[in-house]
Amino acid sequence: MQSIVDFILELDRLKSVTRKTRPLGLDRYENSAEHSWQIALLAASLAHLAEAPVDVDRVVGMLLVHDIGEIDTGDTMVYVEEGLAERKAAELACVTRIFGRLPDGPRAKFMALWQEFEDAVTPEARFAHAMDRAMPVLLNLANDGQSWRENGISHEKVVRRIGPPIQAGCPALWSYLEEKLEEAKRQGWFGAA
Amino acid sequence: MQSIVDFILELDRLKSVTRKTRPLGLDRYENSAEHSWQIALLAASLAHLAEAPVDVDRVVGMLLVHDIGEIDTGDTMVYVEEGLAERKAAELACVTRIFGRLPDGPRAKFMALWQEFEDAVTPEARFAHAMDRAMPVLLNLANDGQSWRENGISHEKVVRRIGPPIQAGCPALWSYLEEKLEEAKRQGWFGAA
After folding, report:
1. Over the stretch B109-119, which tens digit does the pLDDT of each residue have?
2. Among A20, A37, A156, A192, who pairs with B37 as Cys (CB 3.0-4.6 Å)?
């Protein structure tokens, strides 16, 4: 029991990993723990529109664990491409340590979910990635492009970087977003290209 | 699609519902969104120790939605007994409105999960309640009794109020906590009885 308690207390640290997006109406940045909660519910709401039939429970499981590696590395915006290999290695080391506190059953289960998300090959993992990519866009669209403006992210960069994974996991969501992103561009909510 | 987007943006408000417990090492109170994420993972880690065999995916689903009614009511400490009926009615009205934004499939699914948790009858719901009750205790035990001291909660009150539901859902966890709570009492981490 103590090892499971140590595990859950170490997870507490994800509440202090801040992202670049602000929750609507709040004067702070969101953290990776509350983000993980929200995209799990986004996935459960959109599963019927996944590109291929998915086991939604596995998608939810992946989304709940996918950011735990950030406990050591912090969150990095999807538009930052430098240092990716080092970051991925550090995240793997982090989850190996943290999941390693657990008994065999839950350890193997969490590790498999985390790895499936990283590999991004199964329909479940591709749908999960679409959810993870789409959520900050949805918040920005409701937030006058707050994190795009603050970080100088252009419309073209958003479309190039997040279009393909969202299209691959949830085409109906991408059709919706593509149009909204055009509208946001007309509003001047992006950084310069 | 727009109705699902409206739903997920309304959920954003749970990130501003604050609880009485502080995340470890942080100078703020935790919110109900990150709390929901954490107890979903606590459940997935402890499911093998549930009082009766449980479908862990349904437990996780319940825990992800169980606090959504607080978007209208705010969080209330488990030790506050006044106004319970009114609060429960307001929470029901809240989730009926918010889940009501969704298409039939996800709406019915979320509503059923929320209601199953409220009814607290199935093994899954009883285990889910045990997780929800245990998490603030685990944080307090790692936090020198922060929310007990701040709110004048006695050892006796904790044991009386949270002992039965944790025992009913996860007896092994209660055995562990009972001993730790005695230790915390010796440390003086509670309010006066």
Report:
1. 999 999 999 99
2. A37
Contact yes or no for A48 and B105 at CB 8 A: yes
- State residue B18 phi and psi, 5-degree precision: -95, 145
| Cα–Cα distance measured from residue A39 to residue A129, given in angstroms and rounded to the nearest whole number | 10
Q: Quick one: pLDDT at residue B183?
A: 97
List chain B residues with CB under 8 Å of A40: 37, 40, 64
Give one DSSP letter per residue of B113-176, joined into a string: HHHHHHHT-SHHHHHHHHHHHHHHHHHHHTTTTHHHHHHT--HHHHHHHHHHHHHHH-HHHHHH
Q: Out of B4, B16, B34, name the one closest to residue A31 (CB).
A: B34
Query: Are the C-beta atoms of residues A44 and A54 closer than 8 Å to each other?
Result: no
Closest CA to B5 of A128, A38, A7: A38
Searching chain A, which residue's CA lies closest to the CA of residue B3? Answer: A45
The per-residue b/e assignment along B93-129, b for 16 or more CB within 10 angstroms, e otherwise, is ebbeebbebbeeebbebbbebbebbbeeebbbbbbbb
Mean pLDDT to the nearest integer, B168-190: 97
pLDDT one-digit tens code per residue, A35-79: 999 999 999 999 999 999 999 999 999 999 999 999 999 888 888
Q: Taking all residues of chain A, what is their mean pLDDT, rounded to a whole number? A: 96
Residue B193's pLDDT is: 61
Report CA Rg, chain A.
17
Longest dimension (CA), chain A: 55
Between CA A23 and CA A25 the distance in angstroms is 6
Contact criterion met (CB below 8 Å) for B88 and A88: no
What percentage of chain B reaches a pLDDT higher than 90?
92
- Residues 68 to 97 of A: which have CB under 8 A from any B CB? none
**Residue B138: φ, ψ to 5°:** -60, -40
CB atoms within 10 A of CB A83: 11
ipTM of the complex: 0.96
Q: At residue A148, what is the residue type?
A: W
